[in-house]
Amino acid sequence: MNTREIYALNDLSIKGKHLGKLFRYNPTIKNLSKLLDLIRFGSKKILNMEPYLIQLLSVASFFLYFINKPKDLRGRLGQIATGEGKSLIVSIIGLSLALQGRFVDIITSTGYLAKRDQQKFKPLYDAFGITSSNITADNPSKEDYNGIILYGTNTDFEFSLLREELFMLDKMYTVPLDKNILEKRKFDSVIVDESDNLFLDTALNSARMAYPAKQGFNWIYKPMFEIVKKIKDKVTMELVKEEFKTYCEGLYSKKIESVSDKKIQILIDSCQLAMNKIKGKDYIVKYDEQTRKKKVFIVDLDTGRINYGCRWSYGVHEFVEVMENLIPETESLTIASISHPSYYDNYKCIFGLTGTIGEINERNEIREIYHLDSFDVPTNFELKRKTLEKLILENKETKYEKIISEIKKYENRSRLVILDTINETLEFSERLKKLGIYHLLLNDIQNEKEEFILYYVGKPKSLVIATNAAGRGTDIILTKESLLNGGLHVIVGFFPANSRIEFQAIGRAGRQGQPGSAQIIFSKDEFKDISINNVEDAIKYRNNKIFMISLYRIERTKKERIYYEKLKKYFALQKILYNSLNKQKNSLVLEKLKEDWGIFFSNDIEESFDKFLSDYSWEFLLKSNKEDIEKILNEKLNNLIN
């Protein structure tokens, strides 16, 4: 009998859990097909979304991991073309895992997408008796974590882990399948959308927990900045210390004597780094809605998004604030950090989806670091997008002129122009205004809501100027008239740093078999450190750079993992000491630990982890070999235990 005719909606929960557990304990193709057919039925009836065959086969390709049980792998990575319905594929994978009795974390590229997809697929999850939630709030509540399927960004999950362990919050509890009591949430399985960005582009962007220092150095930032700026290229620690004696008639001469040479050198290096940061590219300055004050916000160069809540370490952020004539915030100490590779090490199973895995050496890198193999999924519809030849021009001026002529050429189409930085979008926008060409901006600092802009660009004769915020994860719905006019035309106005960013950007056009077109238009002056004469030169330069960056990421990841292993031991030790001292109420031991190590046993963090490991973070790791790192960190841990 045809299974499509025998399911009843009120049977979905019971039947789904039965089939889920059947596959978990007997993972065969037959049991998997039964489970996926039930979910297909539920999706059609509950959401009016019937998965295509290729979408179901994509899900099945991931679950071959459980069927084949490869010893050297921890999951799979699937290349699924942009516009092929990845959000539905993700929801089916998540629901299939949850019905097996697993906790499921779903990581998206933005908080907007996390909330949107969780709410979109919640009726389907509810119908199968699976709870879901998202942790996109600034400070998620305990209730937010109570979802078998949990949505959020990588930042949401990483900071949740650090807060949970450092402050012993006990928030991350979930009621498991078919139980009525909260349990500590396990790192069972994770599904990562746009995984190439997290696994590669931002792999070393650590989530860092910071805390205001007891004795900050806020007084030092302005004079240090002005002294380094005055000395320019001849900056040395000795010269800086000498300049402090006469700066403001010696106002800080005694204070500078109390600062160690090591700290001074770190601040000099950070000051020079800050001076090289470019407003509108590396950061923006705008009013913070919560504090009602102007603040410096970091821009993620890969996604074009603003990294809210993040600050550069070692004084770099404070120096940028001085550079922008802002009062530096109270200096913060990095008390713990975790990079993406270390975070994913916690999971038993990792499934990644992306439209662009990248070159062969990047696939090899993903296998080496994350222990995932990869597979490619054919498109469900024939690709109708016309990708025009890349065009290289002499300079930015001629590039802008060409882009404007292309905008006019395709005036009846929906048009999206993607530029490299926020500054460029603002600069180009001013040109269009002078020419009377109506458009909207999508650069994460625009006035209009993103949903409205994406709705607008789907109409004919629309024009949106964007950063790469529009190049990854955005879903542009075209009207019938736009489709009849030829679909979306995308112009990428810079040479992408890798083929993945390139394909993500041009992949906004021609989704799901729709008509569309795209072209990359860039200029020679984008390449500051090398002479580029043609497109072939640019591609060769990019490939060499990708190879070197890949080697660097692999090496740095190995070192960072050592750091995180020690951090986990510190978390465990802290809990043991906390429980032990609370029982004994041994105030003398407690005070001694606080005095020597800054260990905290309450909500008062003090400067604990700074004294324990902050001198041995990234700067230390980059300059040391594995044996040195192990020796020093083990010595500190043993001293602490004793």
Q: Can you give a write-up of this model?
A:
The protein is α/β, with parallel strands linked by helices. 48% of the residues lie in helices and 15% in strands. The strands form five sheets. A seven-stranded parallel sheet has the order 3-4-2-7-13-1-14, sandwiched between helices. Strand 10 and strand 11 (306-307) form a beta hairpin. The longest helix is centred in the last third of the chain and has 50 residues, at 535-584. The chain is globular and about 90 Å long.
Features:
642 residues, seven-stranded parallel β-sheet, alpha/beta, 24 helices
TL;DR?
48% of the residues lie in helices and 15% in strands. The protein has 24 helices and 21 strands.
How is this fold's topology laid out?
Layout: H1 12-25, H2 29-47, H3 53-68, E1 75-80, H4 86-99, E2 104-108, H5 111-127, E3 132-134, E4 149-153, H6 154-166, E5 173-174, E6 183-184, E7 189-193, H7 195-201, E8 207-212, H8 218-231, H9 237-246, H10 253-257, H11 261-275, E9 283-287, E10 294-299, E11 306-307, H12 316-323, E12 332-338, H13 340-344, E13 349-354, H14 360-370, E14 372-377, E15 384-387, E16 391-393, H15 396-409, E17 414-418, H16 422-434, E18 440-442, H17 450-457, E19 463-466, H18 480-484, E20 488-492, H19 499-506, E21 515-523, H20 535-584, H21 587-597, H22 608-613, H23 618-623, H24 626-641
Parallel strand pairs: 1-13, 1-14, 2-4, 2-7, 3-4, 7-13, 15-21, 16-21, 17-19, 17-20, 18-19, 20-21
Antiparallel strand pairs: 5-6, 8-12, 9-10, 10-11
